[in-house]
Amino acid sequence: MEQITRIPVGGERPYDVLVGRDLLAELPELVVGAARVAVLHTPALGDRAGAVADRLRSAGVEPVPIEVPDAEAGKDIEVAAACWDRLGAAGFTRTDAVVGIGGGALTDLAGFVAACWLRGVRWVPVPSSLLGMVDAAVGGKTGVNSSAGKNLVGAFHPPAGVLCDLSMLDTLPPVDLVAGLAEVVKCGFIADPAILDLIEADPAGAADAGKPVLRELIERAIRVKVAVVSGDLYESGQREILNYGHTLAHAIEKVEGYRWRHGHAVAVGLIYAAALGRRTGRLDAPTADRHRSVLNLLGLPTGYPAAAWPDLLAAMRVDKKARGSRLRFVVLDGLARPGVLSGPDDEELRAAFLAEVADDRAVAA
Description:
The protein is α/β, with parallel strands linked by helices. It has 14 helices and eleven strands. The chain has helices spanning 27-30, 46-58, 77-90, 104-116, 130-136, 174-190, 194-201, 203-206, 212-229, 246-255, 262-279, 285-298, 309-317, 346-356; strands spanning 5-9, 15-20, 36-41, 62-67, 97-102, 122-127, 141-146, 149-156, 162-165, 328-332, 338-342. It has a four-stranded parallel β-sheet with strand order 4-3-5-6, sandwiched between helices. A three-stranded mixed β-sheet has the order 1-2-9, with helices on one face. A hairpin with a 5-residue loop joins strand 1 (5-9) and strand 2 (15-20). The chain is globular and about 60 Å long. It starts with a strand and ends in a 9-residue tail after the last helix.
């Protein structure tokens, strides 16, 4: 049997993140005492949801399968409301639970559904994407999108446990696997430079689900996030560093109508954050340049059309990381030394974008 790595998440509501292959045997223990478990899943993961349902039945638990739209189309308040209607029809009580099988958007939705039903029931994310494993499913942040922006409606609701089943990555399209690596790169720059060394040494292996280097990258990225969220569940302090590159990334996603993959937007956002750090005199040139070189090794996008700047700035102003009328950006004061840049002037923001990000050849991948 392949080794299972257990990464404990501390704080007021501790749980474990499990990393390994074929982890369904671990699920019944996480929902002990539940009579019913809702199994939220995307259309493409119907077979996997069926396997989860079978495992629950064998443990004496009634599964309630709920199919929801894929990707960001599922992160909608009307979709969440339809899930709550299903829970009500099935007679869900406080001791029942929710399982979410899918990418980051699906686990965000599943956690939000669980957080709101009866003011909070247990939930277990089973992320099917690299992005979900290293980011969305860990930390207890749940939510849906609105017309105003991404993730502006949500709740902090830690799961009972997280099952990062690496076998889910075997059939993940290469473009989605590589997109998820943007969040891994982020973790390398804010906390664990060994991640960057591993990618630079073997970029092909980093993007190969069958290679041990990818598992090491996943575990390292999870440990970075766990170290932060264990001491800051409610994003009142240190947790903000996990937003490195995300202020512009979320703006790109909104301007694109969420057609861009999150990881692709984050990659561009990392370039922008590095540019801001460099231009404000906080980040040395070699570390700023390393952002582009690492992302290029993985084939991730690093530019966005110059004409979009006014729309991007407007979108950033309603980002949840803003404080009043002041924009806030996580920047680096050096490798693995994150800090906050608060209230830069509009011209500085524009200049950084035009100098380092603007690329009219950029298209959604």
